[in-house]
Amino acid sequence: MTKPILQQDIEQLREAFESEQRLRMELEGRLHRLSTDFHDFTARVAHDLREPLRTVGVYSALVSSKAGEDADARVYLNFIQDAIDRMQALLGAMIEYASVEGELRHPVSVDLNAATQEALRRLETGNAMVTRDHLPSVTGDFDLLSKVMRHLVENAIKFAGRPDPVVHISARRDEHDWIISVQDNGPGIDLSHQEWVFGIFRRLHGRDFKGTGLGLAFSKSVIESLGGRIWVESTPGSGAKFLFKLPSPD
């Protein structure tokens, strides 16, 4: 015969559960504050470092103008200027990435045709052919999604590894969501790297290509902050397709 649970036992279990709940909420709050403080610190440091870098850039350019016929001096100064440009790009990317965390989101209906047009306007596509189907509206943030589209298209062009990169943007309905895809004709990404590429400072090709290693990490952070998810589908030798899912405003 099963022994009945005493009222005292029930009260003890309830108190233990409520204590655990309070502890969990306290830990979540502390974790959120630490995350916000870290991103604020990162953004502030990155911002403050840009000014001295600009000063170094200006004076190195002045020195270069007075280097005369000294070929070695010009080579060294070009190295300095290239390092400054890369550092400026990295700091800008860090500020952009840090800005995603901690912001209160107010998702609205966003026309992805307009967001993609804005992304392409800010992007140097060179010899690449970028085509797109008519895109839907999704629930999100216009500025953030235009940056996501810019990063995904730029990534597709940059790593195509061929003189005739082709990028196609399309969409398909998935119940109450839309799935947006950015397909390229590059070398593709091995399965073992398909999650890895979304990490911070992850650069699949090392320093063979210019970049900060933050574009895909930024895109992942944005899409997840808007309640969606992002992933890649690829077979080596057959290009890569980056996809993200966001709710439909309908």
**Number of separate structural domains:** 2
Structural category: alpha+beta
The CATH homology group name of the largest domain:
Histidine kinase-like ATPase, C-terminal domain
Give the overall silhouette. globular
Helix share of residues?
Answer: 40-55%
The major β-sheet equals: 5 strands, mixed
Q: How widely separated are the two ends?
A: 56 Å
SSE topology string: HHEHEEHEEHEE
Tell me the strand percentage band: 15-25%
Q: What is the overall pLDDT average?
A: 82
By CATH, the architecture of the largest domain is named 2-Layer Sandwich
Quaternary organisation of the protein chains: single chain
Low-pLDDT runs: none
Q: Give the class-level CATH name of the largest domain.
A: Alpha Beta
- Summed up, the helix count is 5
Our Rg estimate from Cα atoms comes to 24 Å
* Major beta sheet, strand line-up: 2-4-5-7-6
Number of strands: 7
What name is given to the CATH topology of the largest domain?
Answer: Heat Shock Protein 90
Structural description of this entry:
The termini are far apart. Helix 1 (7-65) packs antiparallel against helix 2, helix 3 (112-121) packs across helix 4 (142-158) and helix 4 (142-158) runs antiparallel to helix 5 (215-225). The chain folds into 2 domains: 10-100; 108-247, Histidine kinase-like ATPase, C-terminal domain (Heat Shock Protein 90), CATH 3.30.565. By secondary structure, the protein is α+β, with helices and mostly antiparallel strands. Helices cover 51% and strands 17% of the residues. It has a 5-stranded mixed β-sheet. Strands 1-3 form a two-stranded antiparallel ribbon. The model has no long low-confidence stretch (mean pLDDT 82). The radius of gyration is 24 Å and the shape is globular. It contains 5 helices and 7 strands, in the order H-H-E-H-E-E-H-E-E-H-E-E. Strand 6 (229-234) and strand 7 form a beta hairpin.
